[in-house]
Alpha-1,4 glucan phosphorylase
Amino acid sequence: VDLPLAPPRRSDAPVLAADIVERLTYRIGKDPRVAERHDWLSATILAIRDRVIDHWMDSTRSTYEQEHKRVYYLSLEFLIGRLMRDAVSNLGLLEETRDALASLGVDLDVIAELEADAALGNGGLGRLAACFMEAMASVDIPAYGYGIRYVNGLFRQELHDGWQAELPETWLADGNPWEFPRRESSYEVGFGGTVDTVGSETDGTGRCVWRPGERVIATAFDTPIVGWRGKRVNTLRLWSARPIDPILLDAFNAGDHIGALAESNRAETLTRVLYPADANPAGQELRLRQEFFFSSASLQDILRRHLQQYDSLTNLADKVAIQLNDTHPAVAVAELVRLLTDVHRLDFAASWHIARDCFGYTNHTLLPEALESWPIPLFERLLPRHMQIVYAVNAIVLREARAAHFDEASIRSISLIDESGERRVRMGNLAFVGSHSINGVSQLHTDLMKETVFANLHRLYPDRINAKTNGITPRRWLMQCNPDLFALVRETIGDAFMDDAAKLVDLDRFADDPAFVERFSAIKRENKVKLSNLVARRLGIRLDPDALFDVQIKRIHEYKRQMMNIVEAVALYDQIRSQPDRDWVPRVKLFAGKAAPSYLAAKGIIKLINDVARVINNDPAVRGLLKIVFVPNYNVSLAEVMVPGADLSEQISTAGMEASGTGNMKFALNGALTIGTLDGANVEIRDQVGRENIVIFGMTAEEVGTRRAEGYDPASVIENSRELSQALMAIESGVFSPDDRTRHADLIRSVRERDWFMLAADFDAYAAAQRRVDGIFADKPAWHAKTVRNTAHSGWFSADRTIREYASEIWRAG
Ligand code: 26M
């Protein structure tokens, strides 16, 4: 045969096509003639995965050879979504893969849709961990993510008569071609039992030995995470629990078929399901077991890898940085101290200092009900040795506070033990004292950390708290989810922004260029058509793509104020009917999000949205000027369609309550305007895009605080707002729930009586801001210029920037 010179890249497609057929035949065991779409997906992933492996091994090897510091990101959640497009696109194989599949009669976009959306997380915190994994690989940081391989991720949401129903999510049902089981990387994790002292206390040989009453095996499953341009491939290592003895044969043979499997079931229950709350920790024993299980397995793995290379633990903190994603892995602080002292025989003080030099802790919420703490009797029963270590650490910290002349109240707030009622271990305080860095996820949130929950710890250790404003990966959240906009940007300003998102600012000078704006807005419209098609397919509701698409997608929470949004829709509905001849701007309000199954108020809000939607959407007097849509089963894949199709991004939390938000960044990057409060990263979005290009309303965090301190009275506020009074009255009188007129009475009463999230106080400002939005939207050149400027100035929110800050200021790595 005639061997060509270096072929143009696209001609690699035949090689890839042959590889896919090979995987299909020999790995899946399917004849291409009878293969189904799902088989093609698996075969394609296997072929792509094989192209990742050399990069993966190179990355691991170079870290080892160059003795680079490794970063370990411990998180109980990784909300990764689909991986195929991400890997293909980061490897630069998108066109090649498309062509290869086309030559086999397969459509890439069709099979990509079949990949399971891995939802091993609840919301923002889990999605941040996934963006960080991709960004750490992209900026060439040797990093490992550690978490749990839940068999069932976040529940699937259905709507039954407008109410949320939860169904199990079975992402592994068709197998997971991305993962590599690592039976050789297995560790024992213990629970319960007793603590013995062996040797003599006096001659220095004395030490503690924990003899667990129960043990399980943690086994690793690795998923490669490909960075941008395939530069580096890192590992996401998820632990699965299995029993030491899969079956007790003696018991089985004696006829005890249930007892023979009891241990096995108990182990498998550990990693069975993700807890579906993203606030209000349930405080259940299984959750603490999950937290300790994955913390312990991860630390044993980290120490094994370090000792294998360096043969010593004294340099651990020079070579290892461990980031705690919230307090969920905080027990790792005590576990590392235990491993260093009891197992590796370092003295306690040395162990404690090494641990603190290794750990960093990221806080994601200030909501008091979301701060984790565990009842002492439970903690002590499950982790008796760790309880001792917590007390020992607490003694050190309290001694330091006394030496600094702290008063009793301050000392009580610093203590690792909450003595105010039932005694509890405060995981936030444990994470704080066990870390050399404690960071917030936006500037405002960090300032509030210093003033509220951690005020006294901050006074004692004033140089530990720092701000690291969240970021998002521009690969998934622009290149992949909005390929047409990405292509336009590239054609307009060149390729530099692909490696440095800050360079998107070069788009700014095109904001008033009619030819550019025309194309930019045509792409937005096309994305709105795609979103409309999804809504038509799933819900049978027809949308007008020229209407303003107003989108609020996030977990359903009172503090996020979806309720304020829907009440405003009711007020608008009222006005459209009473002033039919005004030049209303047609609007579609889209909602999506899950409520924690036990969060009844949040579920009531979902039902309210659906009740209001039914009435408004079916009222001919509205003449299509207002539509309300609740899209079920919000997940990463749905966000990838809804974000590019949005005109308006709703970021309307009560100021001071949303730690950062990251959806806000995704919308701005894709050219939506934000309507928002000065909360979390909204403040920084305003700073970046400029106050003319964002619609800010409502009280500041400081005003919220003062108002509360003064004694907030919602009733009088409601009385003074005609619009709000009428909307609330309509809802509570059953206008939207004719089949059960009092259905929403409790929800409305909680606003009238307490209004903890100050919906009433911000309502008029919100409604006025919405009318400002209408005005801008009607002035197309003004609107379009603002949308372009949002994209142009969102580059700073790249997770690459965030990760570089973590690397240089916290991890001293990379
Ligand atoms: C705790 C115990 C038991 C079960 C679940 C939990 C739990 C799970 C998730 C508690 C909180 C969880 O998440 C909090 C969270 O998602 N916070 C969000 O973090 C984002 C990333 O930093 C921020 O952008 C959001 O503002 C913040 O709400």
About this structure: The pocket of 26M is lined by residues 122-125, 128, 275, 277-279, 281-282, 287, 364-365, 370, 372, 441, 470, 658-662, 680 (CB under 6 Å). The chain is about 50% helix and 15% strand.
